[in-house]
Structure of Helix-turn-helix domain-containing protein:
Amino acid sequence: MTNKLYSISELAKVYGATKWFWRSQIWDGKLPVVKVGRKQFIAAEDIDKFIHDHKQVA
């Protein structure tokens, strides 16, 4: 079973970027979040879309 929602800490571990990178993407409106109280979660499909939208061919 795969996660449907990731915390910022989980994103940092799984995708290798820092927590501050993911937070900056949220603050800049580039990555939507699900807020539960003070916690923020990112949907797996939004991460996939974010990655797809930022792919570049060298």
Q: What stands out?
A: The beta strands are 5-7, 34-36, 39-43. The two ends are 34 Å apart (CA to CA). Residues 5-53 form one domain. The mean pLDDT is 93.
